Amino acid sequence: MVTLTGDRVYLRALEPEDLELLYAIENDESVWEVSQTQTPYSRFLIKQYLENCHKDIYEVKQLRLVIVTHQNEAVGFVDLFDFDPKNNKVGLGVLILDHERGKNYGEEALRLLIAYAFNNLYVHQLYANVLEDNIPSINLFKKLGFQSSALKKDWVQEAGVYKNEYLFQLIR
Asked: Which residue has the higher pLDDT, 28 or 99?
């Protein structure tokens, strides 16, 4: 797994033992805004998801990987979503656990995921959707070479307030 291994973290497939971590993340209302979730997930549904996450990205159009330190501590997730092999593009996202933020795990994980997408999936472009008030993510994607190509006005509504969302693209 050299492709998915960095200096401080590596990316691995989801495992059955990730059930509780995934359950906690998917039911954390503070991240529902960016994941466009509106209802909680049961352990049963997450267990079913884990049982089927081995399917190929070409079939299910998405891939979620766990970000793990070399001390075998899970610190977050990266996702490829809306994989479009015809047009050679895919969306990507990153989520770092609250207590692990600010340690540059997200940057290293995204660098690994970007290299994987370009070199293994042969995509032409990656894109990310970032709310305009998520300054750390905006700075991260800019640092990785993404360019803001659109502002989607009043794109996300949370508690009666509409927020704008940027579309960031990285074209090979």
From this structure: 99
